[in-house]
Amino acid sequence: MGRLQGSFERRLGEFSRTTHPHHVLGFHAVGRGRYRSGAEEVAVEGPYLGLLPAGEDDGNGMVGRYDIRYCLFDGDAVASTSDRVQAIVHIGELAIKRPHVRHLDADAARSAMACFRALALLEHAADPAARIRASALIVELIGLWAESRPTSADDAVERYRIAITRHATDAAVSLERIAADLGYAADHLGARFLERFGSTPVGFRLRSRLAQARESVAAGASVAAAARSAGFSDPAY
User: Fold this and answer.
1) Is the pLDDT of residue 233 over 80?
2) I want to staple 226 with a disulfide (CB 3.0 to 4.6 A). Which of 83, 151, 215, 221 is the partner?
3) CB 54 within 8 A of CB 20
4) Between the CA of residue 116 and those of 4, 7, 136, 233, what are the distances in Å?
5) Beta bridge partner(s), residue 30
6) CA distance 84 to 87
C-alpha cells in the first residue's frame, strides 16, 4: 500500500519508466497527462483506476499535480495479453480482458477511494481475518476495473473528453475537429458532455489550459510564454 502526492515537473510527452515485479492496482484521484501500461498508451485525467500485471512496463507521462493511491499484490489470476495492450483477469474458465486504465465517474471514484482507505487500515494487520478482508477489497477493486464499459454514446463522450485533454494546449485543433474525428457533431457531443460532466467542452478546455499556464509560470516562464504553451493565442486573456 502507498500514497503519492505532489507535482510532476515534466513536459507533456515525457515519460518515466518502471517495471514492477508485482501486480499493481492504482487509483489516481488527481492526475492528467499520458500513461503507458504495457504496450498501451492513453491520454488520462483523474479519476481513473489502473491495473498493471507484474512484469509490464509502467510509463508515467503525468504532468502537474497528482494524488495516487496504490497497492501491490501477487497471484496467478492476473496476466497480460500476448501483445500487452490489455490486462486479463482469470476467474475459473472465464478470462476478462480490459484496457489497463478505466476512467471513473463520481460514484465509481468514491467506491475506489473507500476501498483504498479500508486497505490502508489493514496494511499492517497480520492476523488471518485482516488478510482475508484485504484480499476481498483487492477483488472488489478488480471488479470495479472490470465492470462493463459505458454504452457507445457514453464512450464517445468519454473519448471526447480525453481528446480535448490531449489537444488542450494546441490552439490549431478546434473542438469541432475533435468531434468530427470521433464521427460526431460538436453540438451533439457538447450537450452530452454537459449532461455527464456538468461543464461545457469550452469550459473544460479552458480550465485545462489555465492549469497548464499556472504550472509554466510557477516553473519560471513568462506570462506570454506560458500563455502560448497553454494554447492561448492572446497572452492578455
Assistant:
1) no
2) 221
3) yes
4) 13, 21, 12, 42
5) 67
6) 7
| Residue 78 sits in the same domain as residue 16 | yes
Q: Which three cell numbers stand for residue 40?
A: 498501451
**Cis status, amide bond into 21, omega within 30 of 0:** no
39 and 79 both lie in a single domain = yes
Which residues share a beta bridge with 31?
Answer: none
The DSSP line for 160-208 is: HHHHHHHTTT-TTS-HHHHHHHTTS-HHHHHHHHHHHHSS-HHHHHHHH
| Sheet strands (E) in the chain | 2-8, 16-19, 23-37, 40-45, 48-52, 57-73, 78-80, 87-91, 94-98, 101-103
From 74, 79, 59, 63, select the one nearest 21 (Cα to Cα): 74
Into how many domains does the chain fold? Answer: 2
Give the CATH number, domain containing residue 46: 2.60.120.280
Task: Answer yes or no: are the C-beta atoms of 229 and 213 closer than 8 Å.
Answer: yes
57 in the same domain as 18: yes
Distance CA 106, CA 100 (A): 19
- Model-wide pTM > 0.90: no
Q: Could you report the per-residue pLDDT of 34-54, keeping only the tens digit for each?
A: 888 878 777 777 789 999 999
Instruction: List pLDDT tens digits, range 161-220.
Output: 888 888 888 888 899 989 888 778 888 889 888 888 888 999 999 988 888 888 888 888
